[in-house]
From TrEMBL:
InterPro entries per UniProt: Auxin_biosynth/cation_transpt (IPR050982), CHP04046_FMN-dependent (IPR024000), FAD/NAD-bd_sf (IPR036188)
Top-rank lineage group of the source organism: Bacteria
Organism name: Paractinoplanes tereljensis
Record keywords: Oxidoreductase
Pfam entry (one): Pyr_redox_3
Record GO terms (molecular function): flavin adenine dinucleotide binding; monooxygenase activity
Protein name as catalogued: FAD-dependent oxidoreductase
Length: 436
């Protein structure tokens, strides 16, 4: 590792690699520092049956895209790792794996200083491409559960066989919670599921994948500035569906009809008894309403564009809960394990630059922070729906590369202004800079 670079990119996932591709195209000297190895998150924080929710045709990075024979399919976790490894090999980025950045600060002179596990390095500009999913979030209420109960976070779940025999409680119904609950259910385990407020979407509608319709409708090209509640948009839960077995809906009502026990959100613990809020019905109704609202938008688009698409009957609920509040006696129900599908916390404590808001979120506009030379890439809804995904990270990386290059050009311009009155035999590079 050199002692100084024009740009240091922190993180070697799809965001960091995309940034490196554009910097290399512009001839900007840089290095990508990856704490583990390419594809680490996909290797270690996904369960065995995991697959993408977005179709393969949306897997496109700068200078590289999915080229297999199943564009409408959904890559398994191992295939995603291979996709990233092949992408890195396609342009040989200046990537250093196994290097962790432990401190980032900016000197009064405007130089960034980074402490890393491989030594000290400085940079004119820095791109933080470490994503938002740093520390598994487990609520403090977990501390009150019986000590003999096995508790894991969704990032630690691999398969049903690794959990002790008995029933399993899954808390949370974002994409991970719903898919893990399904995985346990299909493995023949008795599952109890605490349902949250995440919305759902149909996998397919009127002859096409719902995401294909939304892409054609321009939904994924909408910038965050088109929404009146940008801060809320960025923290909304993703719609749940699955790409498993070729892709299908996830219908929690159907799970309940087939034997899974559903509850409202977890509200309290008393010894081995859990208390759930009486909001299961409204949560299921709201999830259905969102899914039907997406279908409404697709119908309007089909009608306005005069597209010949097959008609499709609308969803009819297959199960409804009663309205009484629920409790679960863990011991009496034979629950031996809990899977907390409750998301992640950001951890930017190593960044010693005052750019964060009261919630610890980096304040930025399209990834450009208020600190000159410091950028973020790969955040959910950084600019569009696809910003934190394979679908849209390239657009964000291209934008930031332009801003980085503009900053470099401005710096040279400033230096030329300072040197303008100096004889060129003393500083012969002045003529080159002026020509450039």
């Amino acid at each position: 590792m050199n002692s100084h670079y024009s740009v240091v990119v922190i993180g070697g996932g799809q965001a960091g690699l995309s940034m490196s591709w554009y910097l290399r195209q512009r001839g900007v000297d840089h290095v990508v520092l990856e704490r583990e190895r390419v594809g680490h998150e996909w290797r270690t924080r996904r369960w065995d049956s995991f697959c993408l929710v977005t179709p393969n045709w949306q897997c496109r990075l700068p200078g590289y895209a999915y080229s297999g024979d199943d564009p409408d399919g959904f890559m398994l976790g191992a295939e995603v790792v291979g996709f990233l490894e092949k992408y890195a090999a396609s342009f040989d980025p200046p990537l250093l794996e196994g290097v962790e950045v432990t401190r980032l600060r900016r000197t009064p002179q405007g130089v960034f200083e980074l402490s890393t596990s491989a030594g000290f390095v400085s940079a004119d500009q820095v791109v933080v491409a470490t994503g938002p999913y740093h520390v598994p979030a487990v609520p403090r209420i977990a501390e009150r559960l019986p000590s003999d109960l096995v508790q894991i976070h969704s990032a630690q779940y691999r398969n049903a066989a690794e959990l002790p025999e008995g029933a399993v409680l899954v808390v949370g119904t974002g994409q991970s919670g719903c898919q893990i609950a399904e995985d346990l259910h299909l493995a023949g385990r008795e599952v109890h599921l605490a349902v949250g407020s995440a919305p759902r979407a149909a996998r397919r509608y009127r002859g096409r994948d719902t995401l294909a319709w939304l892409d054609e409708m321009g939904h994924y090209a909408r910038g965050i500035d088109e929404f009146g509640d940008a801060d809320e948009v960025r923290v909304r839960a993703n719609h749940y569906m699955t790409g498993r077995d070729g892709g299908r809906d996830i219908d929690l009502r159907a799970f309940a009809r087939d034997g899974m026990k559903l509850y409202g959100h977890l509200r309290g613990v008393s010894l081995s008894t859990l208390e759930f809020a009486d909001d299961l019905g409204p949560s299921l109704d709201n999830a259905d309403a969102v899914a039907e609202g997406i279908k409404d938008a697709i119908d309007r688009y089909i009608d306005s564009a005069g597209i010949a698409a097959p008609a499709e009957a609308r969803y009819v609920p297959v199960w409804r809960p009663d309205s009484s509040a629920s409790v679960l006696d863990l011991a009496a129900s034979g629950v031996s394990a809990v899977v907390w599908a409750t998301g992640f916390h950001r951890d930017h404590r190593w960044i010693e630059v005052p750019i964060f808001d009261g919630r610890g979120y980096p304040t930025h506009e399209r990834g450009v922070t208020g600190c000159p030379g410091l950028y973020f890439l790969g955040l959910p809804w950084q600019w569009t729906w696809g910003s934190g995904r394979f679908a849209g990270v390239a657009q964000d990386a291209a934008y930031l590369c332009s801003r980085i290059f503009d900053a470099r050009r401005q710096r040279f311009t400033d230096e030329v202004s300072w040197l303008a009155g100096t004889p060129t035999e003393t500083y012969p590079q002045v003529e080159w800079w002026v020509a450039a």
